[in-house]
């Protein structure tokens, strides 16, 4: 992932990479060399990096288990921090990082780049317009079979913790509501190449009676969905489907009933508005850097993103205990 961050960083005016750290010195040096950073500090610990490079901000691309130490060290050193997801390895750690960022008066923002895609922005604009009425349910399918190797294949709760948070965060954004409870089931198909938790199904209860139904697997070969999942959103007036790529369609009931069913009419999907924040990964990095220079706080700041993480850990607790779990931060 660090390559994507470096690619984004080199397009932003006035941003200089002053140091690169990895527990493997040669990896850090190789990445710095790849981007022509001959003067950058090469370090093997966060403490060494902060002391020698004295950065204003930190890009955190570490594995989840190392995140709390890296982020808390950077905040204590006066850095703004942009983190990969998930924002912490536990909900308690996430709460602690929110408190530390507030105390340090620094930004801790989380990469939830799906919000910065054009399709979710257009869908949210349609829902907010009331075109399909009040949202009553959201249904989402995610089925792919990637062979990552490395830490993901050794993680517990890999789908929920490493991938589903993107979908959960998008559901919060699209629904414009917050989750209140969840029932979840994890399982390991017989063909799985993951240690644990490659497949899951979850039912979330949002406010206002909205249900979010998630089905996913990371060891599903053939007929794969988009990385953004396949969506169906049902409202009181009609429905919307998005294939996770470029196909967004919506229909509403016209009020006329023919036989068993209401007549329906297609609804035009609104275009992007100039105020919509897009650009995917790069767009979020740009937003973060702009915020450190006095711009608006990104919507994925830790104090908000913890709500998406609470969905993840609520689902994990439910899958572990076999019971419905209340979601709170």
UniProtKB/TrEMBL annotation:
Residues annotated as domain GFO/IDH/MocA-like oxidoreductase: 121-241
Signal peptide feature range: none
Domain of life (superkingdom): Bacteria
Entry's transmembrane regions: none
SUPFAM superfamilies in alphabetical order: Glyceraldehyde-3-phosphate dehydrogenase-like, C-terminal domain, NAD(P)-binding Rossmann-fold domains
InterPro entries reported for this sequence: Gfo/Idh/MocA-like_OxRdtase_N (IPR000683), Gfo/Idh/MocA_oxidoreduct (IPR051317), GFO_IDH_MocA-like_dom (IPR055170), NAD(P)-bd_dom_sf (IPR036291)
UniProt xrefs under Gene3D superfamilies: Dihydrodipicolinate Reductase, domain 2, NAD(P)-binding Rossmann-like Domain
Gfo/Idh/MocA-like oxidoreductase N-terminal domain ranges (all copies): 12-107
Protein name per the record: Dehydrogenase
């Amino acid at each position: 992932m660090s390559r994507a961050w470096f690619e984004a960083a080199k397009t932003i005016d006035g941003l200089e990479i002053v140091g690169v750290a990895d527990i493997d010195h040669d990896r850090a040096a190789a990445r710095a060399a790849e981007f022509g950073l001959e003067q950058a500090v090469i370090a093997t610990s966060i403490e060494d990096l902060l002391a020698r490079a004295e950065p204003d901000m930190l890009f955190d691309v570490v594995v989840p288990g190392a995140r709390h130490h890296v982020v808390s060290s950077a905040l204590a050193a006066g850095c703004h921090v942009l983190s990969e997801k998930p924002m912490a390895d536990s909900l308690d750690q996430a709460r602690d990082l929110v408190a530390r960022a507030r105390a340090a008066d620094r930004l801790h923002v989380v990469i939830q780049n799906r919000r910065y895609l054009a399709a979710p922005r257009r869908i949210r604009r349609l829902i907010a317009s009331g075109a399909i009425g009040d949202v009553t349910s959201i249904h989402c399918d995610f089925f792919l079979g990637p062979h990552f190797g490395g830490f993901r294949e050794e993680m517990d709760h890999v789908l929920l913790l490493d991938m589903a948070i993107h979908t959960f965060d998008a559901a919060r954004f699209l629904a414009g509501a917050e989750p209140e409870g969840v029932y979840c089931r994890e399982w390991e198909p017989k063909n799985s190449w993951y240690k644990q938790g490659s497949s899951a199904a979850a039912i979330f209860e949002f406010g206002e009676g909205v249900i979010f139904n998630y089905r996913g697997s990371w060891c599903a070969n053939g007929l794969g969905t988009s990385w953004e999942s396949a969506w169906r959103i049902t409202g009181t007036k009609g429905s919307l489907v998005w294939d996770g790529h470029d196909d967004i369609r919506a229909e509403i009931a016209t009020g006329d009933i023919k036989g068993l069913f209401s007549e329906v009419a297609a609804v035009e999907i609104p275009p992007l508005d100039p105020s919509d924040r897009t650009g995917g990964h790069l767009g979020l990095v740009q937003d973060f850097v702009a915020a450190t220079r006095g711009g608006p706080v990104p919507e994925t700041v830790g104090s908000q993103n913890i709500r998406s993480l609470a969905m993840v850990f609520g689902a994990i607790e439910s899958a572990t205990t076999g019971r419905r779990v209340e979601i709170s931060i």
